[in-house]
Design a protein that fits this description.
about 280 residues, mainly alpha, about 75% helix
Length: about 280
Amino acid sequence: MAVSMSFWSKLPVSIRAILSGLVIALVPANVWPILLVSLSTPAAALVEVIFLGFYLYWTTGGGPPRKTRDSRQHAFRSRQLSREQWLWGIIGAIFFAVTVHASIVVLFRFVQFPLAAFRRGYDLSFIPTLPLKWLAVIVSAISAGVCEETGFRGYMQRPIEECYGAVIAIFISTVFFTVVHLNKAWSLVAMVPIVFGAGLLLGLLAWSAQSLIPSMIGHVMMDIGLFAYWWTGIAGEFSARPLHETGVDGLFVFACVTALVSLLVTLFAISRLRFWTFVAKL
């Protein structure tokens, strides 16, 4: 054990951050799918919430081993947010989610929405009622948002930030965030820029707040929409036709304006969040 710990400590910080971030993000996130197919939906949701409670307790520095408590708390970016940070963090999170969904709408006005690819692997037909399907969607989003933000924007990004700066750290965490999503049926080539852009914005939210709370909120909100609309259809179906069939119409113009405005608001909120984080340190 001492030998293995010595070997781990000799690895470059970036390698340790990448490996620990991937484990912290991906292993816990895959507990929920197993629970969902093994138990009834209410029971699975209850067990998952309890599991996430223990997960957050440990990743924020609780539990054994004692000698890693400080480093775990540090990697999680555990800190209190001021009222202004909460305000701009929530604004940034909301408009981040709007940006992603509006961008997807714009994308699928240029090309046909590949319904079959987006629904592959997200069949909720085994869940008997619509309320329970919504429960599964919400818990799925919370699980992904909490685990992936803790791993990618916490345990992976923060150590690299401190060694090489925010630009390199956010880029690296975004690259790995994008790569691990490329095995999904919906990860068409045209979706890669959207996933990469989402990773960049989430990295900026975490860095600007020096907290994972805004990025977690934004990630969960984004994923609720993805699961409920694009991946399962329980919130409705995307039926707009590509532009080569319809020409430019009001829906397309609205989606473009929404994507641009929401992106600008997100970036402005990130700048204000960074300002108030700086003020909080004074």
